[in-house]
Amino acid sequence: MSRFSRLFDQFRPASGAAADAVSPSAGETRWLIVGLGNPGEQYRRSRHNIGFMVVERLAAARGADLIRRKFNGFYGEARNDGVITMLALPQTFYNRSGECVAGMSGYFKVPLEQVIVVHDDMDLTTGRIRIKRGGGDAGNRGVRSIAEALGKDFIRVRVGIGHPGDNHGDIDYVLKPLGRDETREFEPILDRAGDAAVAVIRDGLERAMNQFNTRA
Q: Which pLDDT band holds residue 8 (cuts at 50, 70, 90)?
């Protein structure tokens, strides 16, 4: 069992009419975890789809099938002790992620400070995880799209993918599918990024930052 499976093991998938309720019931809190990536098989195992991979693993761990669709994105839900955690994959392509995230967060009444965006980051060494709220987009157009649509004060789980060392090779580097060995190497990184997102909800932002914003 993965580490985030253990952290998330008390959550259960939401079902029935309550799954599409616009507002949480009294005493419930709603969070939205969004993974950034591009739709399509050709991008499925690329570094730019690390956010998708993290959210897919979180959803699989809890049986929260990402098959419902709203605002050009797929989503599923899990519940635990009054906390509704929504897991979403925008299908707008990476650079237009804000359209989907703004639509979902608005419809489901998720406050901006309870939106968590998981994305790849070339400014961090491979495997490094950093949690932050707000700040600049550092050239990440998916993050920029969300900030333009919602504001900057959402929470980010940045997943380091390293840098190719050649500015002319950035696009190929992030979009090229990972090889079999590279995919295996990334599995514990995906687990740790999932742990980080869950820790924000479970323990609060400051404690999660203290735990994960140190060198592994």
A: very low
Question: What does the block give as tokens for 138?
Answer: 């550092």
pLDDT band at 146 (very low <50, low <70, confident <90, very high): very high
**Structural domain total, the chain:** 1
Give the range of the structural domain holding residue 98, as residue numbers without chain letter: 3-16+24-212
The 10s digit of each residue's pLDDT in 161-186 is 998 877 657 889 999 999 999 999 99
Cα–chain-centroid distance for residue 200?
Answer: 12
The DSSP call for residue 95 is G
Say how far apart CA 162 and CA 209 lie, in whole Å: 20
- Report which of residues 200 and 14 the model is more confident about: 200
Q: Which helix (H) or strand (E) holds 84?
A: strand 83-90
**Residue in 38, 76, 48, 32 with CA at minimum distance from that of residue 200:** 32
- Is residue 168 among the annotated active site residues? no
Cα separation, 48 vs 120, in Å, equals 6
- Indicate which residue of 48, 119, 163, 168 is catalytic: 48
Check: CB of residue 44 under 8 Å from CB of residue 91. no
DSSP 8-state assignment for residue 46? B
The model's pTM is 0.88
